[in-house]
Fold these 2 entries.
Entry 1:
Amino acid sequence: MAQISQDNRGLRLVVRYSVLCLIAAIFSFPLIFMVVSSLKPSEQLLADAHSFRALLPVGDISLNNYFDAFKRAPVALFVFNSVLVTGVTVIASLALCSVAAFAFTFVNWKGRDLALTVILATLIVPFETIAIPLLLEASKLPWIGLDGITWGWLNSYRVQIVPFIADGLTIYLFVQYFKDLPAELIEAARVEGASWFAIYRRIVMPLSGPVLATAAILKFLAMYNQYLWPIMVTQEEQYRPVMVGLQYFFQLNRAWGEIMAYLSLITVPVLAFYLYLQKAFIASIASTGVKG
Amino acid sequence: MAGITLKGLKKSYGTAHVIKGVDIDIEDGEFVVFVGPSGCGKSTLLRMIAGLEDISAGELSIGGKVVNDLPPKDRGVAMVFQSYAIFPHMSVRENVGFGLTIAGASKAEKAEKVANAARILQMEHLLDRRPSQLSGGQRQRVAIGRAIVRNPQVFLFDEPLSNLDAALRMDMRLEIGKLHQQLGATMIYVTHDQVEAMTLADKIVVLKDGMVQQIGSPMELYHDPANLFVAGFLGSPAMNFLDVDVTAVNGSKVLVSNAALKPVEITAKVGGFSAGGKAKLGIRPQYLTPVDSGGMLQGRIALTERLGSETVVDLTLGDGTRLIAALARDAVFPIGADLGLTFDAAQAHIFPQ
């Protein structure tokens, strides 16, 4: 009997790992294809696409596509713009949405539930429906800068950042997480004399590692993948992010090798961010979970 | 000086009235225990004193100052929660010193006060640990440490021992008693455990359905319960209640009997009896004595529990009523046998029905 159950367990393990490997393969094939193709000249890339060679770095392998990509478009500028816009938005969004969620969860005020309902209702409004009105508004907004008051936000970083700092989904994520924090921790801090801000900073935020990581990843991906909005608001190359930069490779002669090289390059910040937060995510889970 | 006065205190959530007008005077340095069954409002009342619940009506003053609208931090109170509520991301040292950090105390002052609190609670060796590395009893010490370090006028305890096992509970109970003597601060303690209430309190407040049933010293409540609820709530095993017929009333003397009870005259502490009426006779199990013959009550033994120092006998009387007798020695009673019992009428209580 023991032998059979031992075998069963082994078999189950094999099946489980096979399924996991299959899923991992399905998800990594496009990435492998992208990186491998970026090393091949366009003709070989298209010829290999029908066989397994598409996933293997064989044939005429070189970094030429990367050099050509840099020649064709200001890749470094686009990556810089995207990282800047995304980074600032993620940080500002985490700060603002967590404070808002704190007020919605822990502080009693008139109209609180209604306000939260309205915010949550914005989740069902697709961005495409408000893009045009938003563009019209953004083109008229004032800004105080080094050269005094200027009108119109188009062709700037701020027009890509500010509209996306506050968003219903991030607030909702924080509200749900905060609701699960033990209320007595907050009450204990209040009795100990902590102000609302001290409770937010010293108690709630240090315990919010998992939700911060989740919200940051979601926001990062959404912002880094922005295409529609930046193409509407940036006519000047100086402010364009990576996704808009992709257009440069579809104009005139389309070079697939260069496109793959460009895509490989712009994937690096995403992977780096993801790997970094994955660590923080696991660490934050390990340090919480203390029950009374 | 931090006496506390509750005047007509009320709390409602919409149409649900949880606290229905409570008046209590607590003197400076007194140890007061709020006791009552689940849902009686005792924790709500404590949270109202702490400032964690709004007061719907009435007046609350601490140290002679009305504090109805003051936030918790300005009331000079410290609170120990049932779940300890210690901050999981901070070391014991940071937890105990949290209030001082918030108040902007200097490093030296904080170190000294934390060390002092740790010494009082004998937890110096725990200061650098994380809450997750502590046992339940140690966590409770940290929570108490956090309360005493700010030297508050009033300590509030919300069922602080109910998550601990029986042995630890007794140790911590003694420690809290000692702490009260040492600090001399006003303490309010909420519990549903009557042993904690009886042993710790200078004054017990018995609550039921958001109303005070009786306020008094533990022994006053035990010996002179104001009503049926208090009589039944305090004491273990609980007081026996017999439905009796009132046969004669002479001033405060009430003569009662029923099918299982021989006529006996009881001195009533409350009025409202009339000959021919009904009443409840309360007899504590400890005051019943077995007799060989001619007992005032006669019952059949249904169950016995021998605890060594005490034998608890569960009897069924002639009219079907259940009666518990706690006899102060080890004895063997055969189940199913008849047993006659007597009691001192001066120790019995009578309540109108």
Entry 2:
Amino acid sequence: MKCKVFSTGLIAVLLTLTTSITTVSAGDSISAYMGFSREVNEALAKQIQDKLGIEVKNITLSWGEIWARLQTESPRFNADMVLSFGASEAINGAKKGYYEKYQSPGWDGIDEAFKSKDGSYYALGTFSFLLLSNKDKLAEMGYDVPKSYQELLDPKWKGQIVIPSPRTSGTAYMINYSFLQLYGEKAGWEYLEKLDENVAFYTKSGNAPTELVGRGEYLLGIGADENVLKRIKDGYPLQWTVPVEGIGYEGNYCTILKGTKKLELAKKVMDYLGSEEISKFLGSMGYIPPRAGSVSALYGEVQPTFIKLDHAWAVKNKRTIVKQWKSKFLMKETAKAKKVGDEKEKKAAAKQ
Amino acid sequence: MAEAAIGNTPWSMWYKIRIFINTHLVNIFAGGLFVLLAIFLVFPLVMVFLKSFWGDDGFTTTFYQEFFTYNYYYWSFLNTMILGLSTMFILVVVGFCFAYMTTRGPMWLRTPLKICALMPLCAPPYIFSISLITLFGRNGMINNFFGLDFNIYSWTGVIAAQALAFLPLSFMMIENVLNSQNPSLEESASDMGASEMQIIRSITIPLASPGILKAALLVFVMTIAEFGNPAILGGRIPFLAPDTYLMITGEGDFNMASVLSVVLMVPCLIIFVLHNYILKGKGYTTIVGKPTAVDPKEITPVIKTFLLAVITPVVIMVVLCFAVIFIGAFVKIVGVDNTFVWDHMLNMQSNEAIYNSVKLSLMAGLFGAIVGTLLAYVIMRGKFKGRHVMEMMALSGFALPGTVIGVGYIMAFNKPPFLLAGTIWILILNCAFRFLAVGVEAGISKLHQISIEIEEASADLGADFITVFIKVILPIMFSAFVAGFIYTFMTTMMSLSSVIFLVTPGFDLAAVYIYLTAQLGELGLASAATVKMIFIVLVCLASLKLLAKKTGLKSEKK
């Protein structure tokens, strides 16, 4: 039968594939969930491999995704380390006992603000959000760059602003609580509600506004500062501003996951992450690194104005704030939808 | 013969085993397959269902209450239905027009149209939202060129992107039935004076109804489950599939995600059951033996104009979208800085992802095709009870949204006894079982065509079951095997909705890579990866076809 030739061929392919899957690549390697932007992840992995000879098998995920994975996988994590996620994830995970406690000598001499006391997690640096605008489009329309957040409420920006959604983006949550802490909770929500009238839509990722504004799809955006430098270098007509009120900031935390079979390698990597070299490297990528003397390529020597933030409060209240945000901006879609929903709620109440 | 002589010696152990296998092989297979289906298809769904009722403090209905109190979810559900139904309607019409043209239209148009209708199969579904933004975005090329103020972040955008993405599915299903209709039926109607419109209405469409219904079902399920396009283009419009994804990745809320999954599954299952009910006993095979080649009849001008009016804009869109991707792969930033660069194409990260994807797709394809063929055989020829249940289980893959299965897999295979998370096997099994339905169905329809008498005859002539199986049944079912393989291979390459939950560090998949880079706005990298992927897929398909040709087998493309 001729089909035998065919199936033999297929089976041969199958066998080669199976063997190629089972063979473990030689050399040391650890795997990590990485929550920087993709090119930073790749560059950081390469940096570690070049320096330590440890291959970092990585996957780029958003902080939310990393957190979802940790929750489902616990106590058997499918990675050895997390390289960069937010304060809420770091702190809540430490509470749940997800992380290996390790007092890394590599991090000696770094400000205590960048470390947890018991060695559960370390901050590789901080990043912020920025007001982004499209140079060409602004010139075309004859508008000036807004200097403060209040200017964003001007009706002329209606449908021209994009902001990430705190439901999915760590950056967006930072934006959200920065406003709550800048203006106070009540006035903060009021500001966001007014701003909502000008917002075209809320993006899934904190980096998306950079792209949308860069391409000129929208005039203004508030988004992570992560990819801004690269976009400008790439030739997008993009510009960034720190409004007079200042900007928020948040740490990029890293940690070793409990139960890893490669604890020694992970410790080595962790030691190296505290080094001057990594600080310089992350600075060159636009982050504000923990080691004194390393400069952020985005902001330069002079630190931008920061909004005074209480991160502990933000971590503690994350669930409630996101829920509130959802009920204010997501769940109210159209007047009609609200009406239908209200009627339903009334009916439900009447039944009870 | 010598072997048979040894086998016939009564004291031989081998003989006994052989007798046992001979009489029970179908049942043994059936048992094994049943267990596999139960573990890898039903168990994850049960987990999803349980999770939707199982909170931190045990059984609760609060999650459903939450779903029914917020009007947001109500709208999300309604929008999803509208999206599914409208895309389904559009694609049935467009798919039919394309299929009619490629089977009845002028010869010179057939191949180009066919290629055009199948092209979107070679790229991940959400790639269309990326090209649509480049073309029709607020700062898009076409909008700028014509000074239009068209908003792509809207219903139009989402439906257009979904329709383009799933055009091949609808086309393939409908083309398949139109092709297998006996042309003499239409010819005799025409000889007796029926107009072409009458023929289409009373012969072509009724006979094609199984294919059209299948197309409708597949398009509906795929559209409501694929979250890439709605997530990128939806703007402020809520949809269930992206919501499910975000519920997990954004909020880490598995309970609510399970509720949304269950809700997403309900309409799919209703349509699936309806479809089975309507189709019951309606297998129209009008061809006995080889189809007779007939010269194509000229299509009436009125109908031709209508068909062309439907087809032309779609063709233009497909060509434009692919052109944008192709250009995007070779220029710095398409639409912003159009200088020619090699950077994107030379980026090596995507190569590994594509390599992994090909590897996974081959494995899933083979595994799925083997299981699918066996299942079809067992269902058709077995005499045990519960065959029908098994058939429904196997075919339900058609109706299960990828997001739901993905969610089910992480919850089901993350702890013993089935600890698969983090291995490639979870991906292989997920894809193989999700896309099983096509292989099973092709196998069943093959076996329908071949009378059991052939098998009985060979048995009467002294062949034992194993010989019959290898010498008679396998060759008969081979085309079903190939159909199942190709379908699983292609869909695994492109699918995002369930694998995105399952990929592990160091094992990037092309579809996920393209989605993530596109989401970060790296359109150049995404385009380049897509171009490379299209190339690889075409090479794989071509070599498969060549292999089949070399070995003298006609591979049936499904």
